[in-house]
Amino acid sequence: MPDxxxxxxxxxxxxxxxxxxxxxxxxxxxxxKQEVIGAMSGTVVELGPGTxxxxxYYAPGVKVIAIEPNPVMHDPLRTKAAEHSxxxxxxxxxxESLDVDDGSxxxxxxxxxxxxxxxxxxxxxxxxxxxxxxxxxxxxEHVESPAGHRNRTVQKVLLRPxxxxxxxxxxxxxxxxxxxxxxxxxxxxTEVDRGRAAxxxxxxxxxxxxxxxx
Length: 214
Hints:
Strand content: 15-25%
Helix content: 25-40%
Oligomer: single chain
């Protein structure tokens, strides 16, 4: 991941793109987000919340600790949180090393996150570490297109420019396998093909990972 403090103009473009796609994302995943994120209570860690597209789903009274390493995202994130009356705390950290106590939070949310971190397996371990027993990690991720699909070739061609524009986002990771091999007791993954309109990020996954109850 690049030094985000030195990529302000690129990050501003990324923020605008995230906001422009928020309603389409809501139409696609809003019901599932409301079902899972909306059921979370207590304290929730959101990893890489960006401009705050998930703020609308949190229930009243939830405390959200936002782990957002990009300072450009902080003002729009605060605006979204205020709009939806979310009790928000922003920490300028990377997901690989969280200053959150073991087993201290009720839920973890990470949407379009693991494609853009340096060490996704470590981020998953951190999400597991901070969750209370039986806690849920909710995820949506860009993933590599299936073998033999022509979109996979397009992804390989556009890997570098996409990674440059979106501050390190790699669209060819097998994130489902990474999650299933991680420390969670159970992982539920649904594969999604968003169709040609989603271009080279058409293949995604959505699901939950649950920590053991004891």
